[in-house]
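Design review, sub-item: ligand-bound model
Attendees: FS, YL, KQ
YL presented the inputs for the FE2/S2 (inorganic) cluster complex:
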Amino acid sequence: MAIKKERRDFLGMALGGFTALGGIAALGAAKRTWDPLPSVMAAGFSTIDLSAAKPNSLYVAKWRGKPIFILKKTSDMKKDPREVIVDGSRYLICIGICTHLGCIPSYFPKQHKFICACHGGQYDSNGYVTKSPPPLPLYIPPFKLKGTKVVIGEEGPEFKKLKAAGLTV
Ligand code: FES
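KQ shared the predicted structure:
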């Protein structure tokens, strides 16, 4: 009798264990279904290390299919509340798409300006329009600073401050 009870206990525990494992596996499978695909995750954020950035050289990164302009400023470039300080250096970080009709402006280092070849719009080294037709400055993408790195696509405190001041547009 005692042997039968022990056997029943063992079977009960084994069945309970299998049920628990099945439940965990089902939860894991459900989570994998809810999680975005790795390609979507990768497209959501771009991490750029600025430690090797050279002043007045435009670095172009890619975020969600858009060009991101990163320009390390030289000391003679005008200071601006839109600039981002990374490791003691000043940067312009903006989306490299003209706010007129969406062309990609080119950077002219000698003139410290961006010129859009489509209709002649121009922007200064802070991304402000200096020659129409663009109606707005170059947009600042969501970003977060992590040491010498900038993560594009994540809203960090510096971005939130600019956004609250209406300076990202
Ligand atoms: S698209 Fe840039 S000036 Fe028109």
